[in-house]
Design a protein that fits this description.
Helices cover about 20% and strands about 35% of the residues. By secondary structure, it is α+β, with helices and mostly antiparallel strands. A hairpin with a 2-residue loop joins strand 7 and strand 8. The two termini are about 15 Å apart.
Length: about 170
């Protein structure tokens, strides 16, 4: 395994972690989106995210009247937890979510077969998007040989500092 200490010493460490995170989200057909309700209680629900972009921004479709939309509008703090079903790899994206109701984005981020869940398709009133922009990424990936060091108390982590990612100790 590549331990956190070795990864931190590597100039490419951030890129390795981000690539592992991106591939884990892509491998996971479903992930849990966690939002915070009005009482401060975390609420998790299973989502089918689109593949993350270069900066690990992840988009998901939902209905405008869902609890998650209400919760995100009141408190944008959110977490997306994904697991690769083929192995013990997982990634947690911690950041801020936004509700996006842009027709061009809705059309761009649509999957065939979703008509049953969102009558009217991407142009209808039953479909809206959630955009999650992570500020911290936590990764365990046996596929990429990334695991927490024996003395570590958690996964390998990177945090966004301005326009770049930095490995956390």
């Amino acid at each position: 395994m590549i331990w956190i200490a070795l990864l931190a010493a590597s100039a490419a460490g951030e890129d390795v972690l981000l690539r592992a995170a991106r591939e884990t989200v892509e491998a996971a057909k479903y992930c849990f989106l966690i939002t915070v309700d009005a009482a401060g209680q975390p609420q998790a629900r299973l989502m089918e995210p689109f593949a993350p972009d270069r900066d690990l921004v992840v988009w998901m479709g939902t209905t405008p009247g869902s609890r998650k939309v209400t919760q995100i509008r009141a408190n944008p703090r959110a977490t997306l937890a994904c697991h690769n079903p083929k192995g013990p790899d997982y990634v947690t994206l911690v950041g801020r979510a936004r509700v996006i109701d842009d027709l061009a984005e809705r059309r761009r981020r649509w999957r065939p077969g979703w008509e049953a869940f969102f009558p009217g398709g991407p142009d209808g009133q039953n479909y809206i998007l959630v955009e999650l922009t992570p500020s911290r990424v936590e990764v365990i990936s046996h596929t990429h040989k990334i695991a927490n060091a024996p003395e570590a108390r958690g996964p390998a982590m990177v945090e966004r500092k301005g326009d770049r990612w930095v490995i956390l100790p």
